[in-house]
Amino acid sequence: MTNRKTFRDLDEDQALRIIMEGTAAETGENFFKALVENLAKVLNIKGAWATEYNKDNRQLNSLAFWIDGQWIDEYRYDISGTPCEAVVEDKKLIHVAQNVIELYPDDPDLEPQGAVSYIGVPLLDIDGCVLGHLAVFDTKPLPEESWVNSVFRIFAARASAELQRLRAEHDVREREEKLSRLVNSAMDAIIELNNMLEVIMMNSAAEKVFGIKVDLIRGKSFLNLLSDESAERFPELIKDLGSQPEGKRYLWISGGLQAKTSDGTVFPADATISQYEISRRRNYTIILRNINEHLEAKNKIKLLSDETRYLREEIQELNNFGEIVGDSEVLKRVFDDINQVSKTDSTVIILGETGTGKELVARAIHSTSKRNENPLIRMNCGVIQPNLIESELFGHEKGAFTGATSKREGRFKLADKGTIFLDEVGELPLELQTKLLRVLQEGEFEPVGSSETIKVDVRVIAATNVNLHKATEQGTFRTDLYYRLNVFPITVPTLRERGEDIIKLAEAFSKKVSERIGVSIEPLSDEQKMTLLDYDWPGNVRELQNVIELAVITSKKGILNLERALPRTLTHKEDNKMQNAEQALQTIEELQEMEKENIIRALAKTNWRVYGEKGAAKLLGIPPTTLSSKMKSLGIKKQK
Q1: What residues contact residue 256 under an 8 Å CB cut-off, 6+ apart?
Q2: Highest mean predicted confidence (pLDDT) among 254-258, 320-324, 343-347
């Protein structure tokens, strides 16, 4: 040790110059190594070290530790009972010129190193908090020299600044990593643009949405990722954004954007855009979401809601006698037709008088077909106002016409993959017959107020109580549509043709109604059966159902009150039939007057409503257009 030069051979300027030259080009870990190595050489001492302080466990962790010409890696030092504790706790320079072991006997590292002297100075941040310390020790006394302590303080400040820089750099990297993880884990696409609207960065979600890696789009215009319309609109949005007050330069893009993937596929997107500045240069952040799935889910919910509403209407309209009751020969022929045609997707036209059960036949065809897991959507073309039929069939967009406050799916859309039943198809206006023909031929249509073509796969079953062939000759029904519908005709027999089926139906109706209203009804007597069989049933099954319901409601002691329910002129006795027939003879004028009175009573009962489920046409069992014609010919006008 006696041959080592003392630091007294140097002055302050020389020492500063040596240490400055040795550390000037270094940063980070290399700076701390250069500092302690040069400090040890300048002072000609055994060891020097720079540390970072961990307040939680009261340990000093070495940033660089130079001892006897060697580096000590990852050295940790508990400050309790050591001279370093005084440096950290008192936040001041500590200079122990000699006898350091006697002053700090609890320090386990001083004696093994043969330490005699010690100098330590804290590394403080701008708030005065201890970041670490810079210290030296030697095996010989270190007399107090003012320039030595000055050098220590100067380089302690330099070391503090470097340590703060490293911590700040670490914090920035950590924040950037967290931000990167946050951005890349986001479900929404995030794109960063420069002031030229060129892509700087995009997250993983954006790469997925646009189908392109950021390296292939970086430096290229974001407008390349937008449809022509949105690309033209985007600069205006940027201009609007720049006009916003400072601190509020963010914008929800009303109506969203039409973006496009790398293969040119256009998709709708909700988006926000914000502006920020770095080094006085404007940058933009776009957060964007492909709402195709959202719209599809929303449309699916809307479709299911509409379908539910339609089906509820259907349930309300069902007569609760879902099965076709009867085994007459004429009805068996209908069953055979149902069995044959249900195995196919052929269009069916069901013919028959009002009230014969054409809808039940349609339901039977659907329920036994391969489409039975999908909906049967019904529409009565005769009860909907002509100006609303197109919307009901094909749907409409929001604002397509007065009262169209929201988008609505049409019945053909609801029936996709299923069946649509068009009752009273003969009442369809001519202009809509062309559109129906197109659906039958091509399976496509446009909703009212939309240019979008909708493709559907729908089986069509139609029904009518009019002679469509005659209607084609009269020009009220398109010939080509008639032949398109008339692929597989089924004629439903009238009730008067079905013989004993009348009794079976009456008994089924009686049982159902009596159970519903909670009364007990005796079986039909022979006389009652004859009465029912003798009647002509112009209203067919629907009339029979109404007659039996009234007979049950007005029953006495469990006996059906057919006298109240059936026309008073009806009896099964031959003499009464002859007498009633004679009494029933009326002139044409008397018949017209009776018809007029009957129509007026129906109109009064329905508050003069012609169309709809609660309209007079429905009550009378005739198409609304027919009722309107009769009102005109009979001179019926709403009473004031």
Answers
A1: 268, 269, 270, 271, 291
A2: 343-347
Question: What does the DSSP assignment read for 229-261?
Answer: HHHHHHHHHHHHHHTSPTT--EEE-TT-EEEE-
Is a pLDDT exceeding 60 seen at residue 540? yes
Query: How far apart (Å, rounded) are the C-alpha atoms in residues 543 and 171?
Result: 86
Give, in order, the Cα–Cα distances in Å from 574 to each of 502, 503, 531: 20, 20, 11
CB 426 within 8 A of CB 464: yes
DSSP symbols for 351-383: E--TTS-HHHHHHHHHHTSTTTTS-EEEEETTT
* For helices 386-394 and 430-442, angle between their N-to-C axes, nearest 10 degrees: 10
Distances, alpha carbon 427 to alpha carbons 125, 476, 636, in Å: 90, 9, 22
**Residue for token pair 């920020």:** 276
Would you put residue 307 in left (φ > 0), alpha (ψ -120 to 50) or beta?
alpha
What the block records as the tokens of 513 is 């109604």
Around Cβ 23, how many Cβ atoms within 10 Å? 23
The residue with greater pLDDT, 293 or 547, is 547
Distance, C-alpha 498 to centroid of its chain: 53
Measuring CA to CA, how many Å separate 36 from each of 112, 196, 580?
Answer: 21, 49, 131
| Alpha-carbon distances of 287 from 166, 187, 269, 272, 281, rounded to whole Å | 33, 10, 10, 5, 20
SS3 397: coil
For residues 459 and 451, give the distance between their C-alpha atoms in angstroms, rounded to a whole number.
Answer: 24
pLDDT of residue 11: 67
422-441 burial: b if 16+ Cβ within 10 Å, else e? bbbbbbbeeeebebbbebbe
User: Looking at residue 399, what DSSP letter applies?
Assistant: T
Closest CA to 448 of 408, 413, 399, 396: 396
The answer to whether the beta carbons of residues 353 and 542 sit under 8 Å apart is: no
DSSP-derived secondary structure letter, 559:
B
CA within 13 Å, CB half, 155:
33
Task: Give the rounded percent of residues in the chain with a pLDDT score beyond 70.
Answer: 89
d(CA 86, CA 93): 9
Quote the CA–CA distance of 186 and 264 in Å, as a whole number: 24
| Angle formed at CA 294 by CA 290 and CA 296, multiple of 5 degrees | 110
* Encoded tokens for 130: 């201890």
Distance separating alpha carbons of residues 541 and 392, to the nearest angstrom:
28
Tell me which long-range contacts 322-325 makes (C-beta under 8 A, separation of at least 24).
322/360, 322/363, 324/357, 324/360, 324/361, 324/364, 325/501, 325/504, 325/505, 325/508
Round to whole Å and give the CA distance between 250 and 311.
46
From residue 524, alpha-carbon distances to 276, 503, 511, 544 in Å are 88, 8, 11, 14
CB atoms within 10 A of CB 183: 19
Q: Is 443 helix (H, G, I), strand (E, B) or coil?
A: coil
Which helix or strand (DSSP H or E) is residue 439 part of?
helix 430-442
pLDDT (tens digit per residue) in 409-455: 889 999 999 999 999 999 999 989 999 999 999 999 999 888 889 99
- Reading the block at residue 426, the tokens are 């003969």
Number of residues in the chain: 640
Exposure string of 260-273, with b = 16+ CB inside 10 Å and e = fewer, is: beeeeeebbbbbeb
